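Materials and Methods. Structural model of Transcriptional regulator, TetR family. The 206-residue sequence of Transcriptional regulator, TetR family from Rhodococcus wratislaviensis was retrieved and submitted for structure prediction as follows.
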Amino acid sequence: MKETKSRPRARGWTSSPGTKDRVLDGAAEVFGERGFTEATIADIVDASGVSQGSIYHHFGGKAEVFLAIWDDLMAQIEAGVSAALDNARKAGVTDRRELFEVSTRVNLELLWENQARAKVVAMGDTPPGFDAIRRGRSRKGSGHDIAILELGSSRREKLLRDYLLAMRAESARVVLGCRTRADLDEVIDYSLEYLRRLNPTQREPD
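The predicted structure was written out as tokens:
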């Protein structure tokens, strides 16, 4: 079966979530070792133990498997961040900066906990069209997080928004290089410290 060369599209999953995880974990291992271009569906079959027919049926091809790794990672992070923010608000946290820190901490923790998949989607060897998909999804997710701060439309606040997102993106890159939980905690603590310095006060009233 010929693999698609156009922009990949994710398909729905109708089988066992455990089977899906085996495919995605196996594919992340293969892509991490060989890169997307050199990897084959046969490699993913060997790594996951799931049949080629099942992979093609549920995903459609190598590019769609790669996209599914990204979609699943983003879904886990978005769900985790949403749950953490709900818990923080129920606990009485109302300060916008504190809520942004909660979001940042959980985001970085989940990236590290899923670093095998996160490293794969961060590498340069990706399917055609994936960079555009990643940028769009990242902007959407980051937009939800940055909205917590309720920044305005002034040039100063737009610049602050860009700096905060750039700093968090750099923190994510460093997190993927952490080997231990202690390393992760240190990076998160530094990241939150720098975010506080960059955004020390609530925005001034218009």
